[in-house]
Predict the 3D structure of the following.
Amino acid sequence: MASEDKAQRVRRMFSEIAPRYDLLNRLLSLGVDLSWRKRAVALALERQPRRILDLATGTGDLALLLKERAPEAQVVGADFAPPMLALARRKAEAQGLKVEFLEADALALPFPEASFDAVTLAFGFRNFADYEKALSEIHRVLTPGGRLVLLEFPPPPKGAFGLVYRLYFGKLLPFIGGVVSGNFGAYRYLPESVEAFPPPEALKALMEGVGFKVRYELLTFGVAAIHVGDKV
Ligand SMILES: C[S@@+](CC[C@H](N)C(=O)[O-])C[C@H]1O[C@@H](n2cnc3c(N)ncnc32)[C@H](O)[C@@H]1O
């Protein structure tokens, strides 16, 4: 699929599922995504960043958690799907948290070099049409010594657990997601995009290729992974 097609398709898809996105996240991960997000936030705040960008922020869960844990930091959430951003703004207001949410494409970030001390990216990277371009953009907007924290679903692990997980992710999840959101295509896309995603070592190499010093950890038997890239 051409890059432009993928971007348009992804943008339309997330715009369509936005109203049910949070509910389905909690439901389909059985609430486990919250513990993954907390770990990502702890890693992002390790070096006490003053300016943080939550990229592909969606409905803003990670951005809001960052602001809650580091009230003194300036947190910006960016996404290219306006309906997701509208929900994020509503949540920030309801929670009394001051986070700026703005429309931006991860492949062409509207920020000058060295604008942020940390960038977080949860379940967004997989959707990007050009991984290297996105990583270069993130690297550009980070300050020297700045940190990227990337939370994603690697391809399912091997063995018996992987088999069960594939059954859940490939069959049950698209069905529940389709029924609840009314968009079967979006929840069929999820397991497809996960299978096509680079395994943790390959992602590490991609990040190193644009100049990050990288380590990663696997969460919940390898269902999720967090890559930490420091700009050296
Ligand atoms: C699965 S959601 C993740 C949202 C949020 N980070 C979370 O953890 O719930 C993926 C988000 O990435 C956004 N996205 C995908 N490609 C993008 C791009 N090129 N630029 C900006 N946002 C993008 C989508 O609009 C969507 O809101």
User: Anything to note?
Assistant: Residues 3-154+197-231 form a domain with the Rossmann fold fold (CATH 3.40.50.150).
